[in-house]
């Protein structure tokens, strides 16, 4: 578990049976700052009983993070990865990075770089994940979300690795 800026603690296991977006960021990162606003809007649209966003600030001093969110309040918890070990354990090598976990807390999508989360295609994708009957039967999916002519390109593969055959599989959500 990680400490949160509100004084509580954040444990991923407490979010079982919800789709969870784990968003790694830093306040000094300009793309991260833009994406926080987009995630704040997404958080307001999502039903709280089926979805959770957890912001994870990577390797910054607590006071800086608290000051940032005092001027930009959000409705989702902000956890503190003070030493960057959690980001390292999740293989985060660029900020921002977001993982979308299914209701069993299995990583299904990985977004490296900032994304506008206010797209209808993303709402449909998250709704479909929250409505899966048996997420245990689904393979984890590594996703690089890139904007292509108002669509989202998904690279589909086994858990966070792309074989040469899988690199060409794409799904467009319109």
Please report the number of helical segments: 4
- Count of DSSP strands: 10
Most strands sheet: 5 strands, mixed
Mean pLDDT: 80
Uncertain spans: 139-174
Q: Cα-atom Rg, whole angstroms?
A: 16 Å
Beta-strand content bin: 25-35%
Strand order of the largest sheet: 5-4-3-6-7
Helix-strand makeup class: alpha+beta
Principal-axes geometry comes out as globular
Tags for this entry?
24% helix, 174 residues, single chain, 5-stranded mixed sheet, alpha+beta, 3-stranded antiparallel sheet, globular
Structure description:
It is a single chain. This protein is globular. The protein is α+β, with helices and mostly antiparallel strands and 174 residues long. 24% of the residues lie in helices and 26% in strands.
Topology, element by element:
Layout: E1 2-3, E2 9-10, E3 19-25, H1 30-45, E4 51-58, H2 62-71, E5 78-81, H3 85-89, E6 97-101, E7 107-112, H4 120-130, E8 147-148, E9 151-155, E10 170-173
Parallel strand pairs: 3-4, 4-5
Antiparallel strand pairs: 1-2, 3-6, 6-7, 8-9, 9-10
